[in-house]
């Protein structure tokens, strides 16, 4: 299945790690600020966006 969007993490990221914990593929690098999503591994489920306490994760067309 192909998606029309990717999830990206903005500079408002507070590097709390909740997105990594929620990600079924563990494809988020929390050692960077802002965190970075590996788009090759991402299954575009939106779990990271749902759990982010500061709304730093968003869809990018």
Task: Please give a structural write-up.
This protein is α+β, with helices and mostly antiparallel strands and 61 residues long. Helix content is 16%, strand content 20%. A hairpin with a 6-residue loop joins β2 and β3. The longest helix has 5 residues. The two termini are 16 Å apart.
Task: Give a concise summary.
The chain is an alpha+beta fold.
What's the alpha carbon Rg, rounded to whole Å?
Answer: 10 Å
Taken from the alpha-carbon principal axes, the silhouette is globular
Treating each run of at least 4 consecutive H or I residues as one helix, how many helices? 2
Strand share of the residues? Answer: 15-25%
Oligomer: single chain
Q: Helical content, roughly?
A: 10-25%
Average pLDDT taken over every residue: 92
**Cα separation of the termini:** 16 Å
Low-confidence parts: none
Helix/sheet category: alpha+beta
**SSE pattern:** EHEEHE
Strand order of the largest sheet: 1-4
Query: How many strands in all?
Result: 4
Largest sheet: 2 strands, antiparallel
Based on the model shown, name its key terms:
2 helices; globular; two-stranded antiparallel sheet; 61 residues; 20% strand
List the helices and strands and how they pair.
Layout (H helix, E strand, L loop, with lengths): L5 E4 L8 H5 L5 E2 L6 E2 L9 H5 L5 E4 L1
Antiparallel strand pairs: 1-4, 2-3
